[in-house]
């Protein structure tokens, strides 16, 4: 298990994204799963930084922890912002997704892409920390 | 951050206004703010076609999708959106979120 800490500021958003790309490539993920994990991680990191910390006037870090087994790559984001479960957010349903652009509402797309893009996504709140957990199966069926 | 954007508004052969925006690099929630400003700028000209050159765009987060939705809502439902040579993962994102059928993917504009 390896961990790296990023300050919870906007400058970290693209740094975290690039770090996730390095981790994914080192784990041997293909191009598409690498992109999807990067996108998922970017959406969650953005939420933590912009809403969990910045908008709430809180300071804190994001710890990016990862581990690799024969079958899966697990990436965990830990932060100390107010408890927030992204899965509680209402996801767009089939009807929303087929609406024309001028009638579309703007919310929920980020978490939708997160859930869609990774093999498993979960959230827990443990010891005063938000934990967003992403799993990618290493032997992909691509 | 590796993102750049520029725009021009011109008239096409039929005399209709066309806004061309070229996006380069990675479009995340921060660069999406610049994208939105650019849309607000070209919206003043009430273009009929919005052409987004994405050939050199390697990443697009949901914030970029929100600006696409915003552009239609800002400029009006009659606006046609063309995306020039988007990279595969970006097409995939547009597809998953149901935005693909609201835009036209082209190899060049005008075709």
What is the gyration radius of chain A calculated from CA atoms? 15 Å
Uncertain regions of chain A: pLDDT < 50 for 5+ in a row? none
N- and C-termini, Cα separation of chain A: 26 Å
CATH architecture of chain B: 2-Layer Sandwich
- How many domains of chain A? The number is 1
Provide mean pLDDT of chain A, rounded.
92
Fourth-level CATH superfamily of chain B: STAS domain
Characterization of this structure:
The complex is a heterodimer of chains A (142) and B (111). Chain A is an alpha+beta fold and 142 residues long. A 5-stranded antiparallel beta sheet of chain A has the order 1-2-3-5-4, covered by helices on one side. Helix content of chain A is 38%, strand content 27%. Chain A has one domain: 2-Layer Sandwich (Heat Shock Protein 90). The longest helix of chain A is centred in the first third of the chain and has 24 residues. Chain B is an alpha/beta fold. Chain B has one domain: STAS domain (Transcription Regulator spoIIAA, 2-Layer Sandwich). Chain B is 32% helix and 33% strand. Chain B contains 3 helices and 6 strands; from the N terminus they run ββαββαβαβ. In chain B, strands 1, 2, 3, 4, 5 and 6 form a 6-stranded mixed beta sheet that branches. In chain B, strand 5, helix 3 and strand 6 form a beta-alpha-beta unit. In chain B, helix 1 packs parallel to helix 2. The longest helix of chain B has 14 residues. The mean pLDDT of chain B is 95. At the A-B interface, helix 1, helix 2, helix 3 and helix 4 of A face helix 2 and helix 3 of B. Chain A: Keywords: ATP-binding, Nucleotide-binding. Chain A: One of its GO terms (molecular function) is ATP binding. Chain A: This is ATP-binding protein. Chain B: Belongs to the anti-sigma-factor antagonist family. Chain B: This is Anti-sigma factor antagonist.
């Amino acid at each position: 298990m390896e961990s790296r800490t990023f300050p919870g500021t906007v400058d970290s958003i693209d740094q975290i994204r690039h770090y996730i790309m390095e981790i994914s490539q080192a784990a041997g993920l293909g191009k598409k799963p690498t992109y999807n994990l990067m996108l998922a991680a970017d959406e969650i990191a953005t939420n933590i930084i912009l809403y969990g910390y910045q908008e709430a006037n809180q300071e804190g870090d994001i710890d990016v922890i990862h581990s690799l087994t024969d079958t899966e790559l697990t990436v965990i984001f830990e932060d100390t912002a107010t408890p927030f479960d992204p899965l509680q957010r209402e996801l767009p349903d089939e009807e929303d997704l087929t609406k024309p652009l001028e009638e579309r509402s703007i919310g929920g797309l980020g978490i939708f892409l997160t859930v869609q893009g990774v093999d498993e996504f979960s959230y827990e709140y443990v010891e005063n920390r938000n934990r967003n957990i992403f799993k990618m199966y290493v032997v992909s069926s691509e | 951050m590796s993102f750049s954007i520029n725009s021009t508004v011109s008239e096409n052969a039929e005399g209709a206004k066309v806004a061309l925006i070229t996006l380069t690099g990675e479009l995340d929630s921060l660069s999406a703010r610049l994208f939105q400003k650019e849309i607000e700028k070209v919206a003043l000209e009430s273009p009929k076609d919005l052409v987004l050159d994405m050939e050199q765009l390697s990443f697009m987060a949901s914030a970029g999708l929100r600006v696409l939705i915003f552009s239609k809502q800002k400029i009006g439902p009659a606006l046609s959106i063309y995306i020039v040579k988007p990279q595969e993962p970006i097409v995939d994102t547009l597809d998953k979120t149901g935005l693909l059928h609201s835009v036209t993917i082209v190899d060049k504009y005008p075709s």
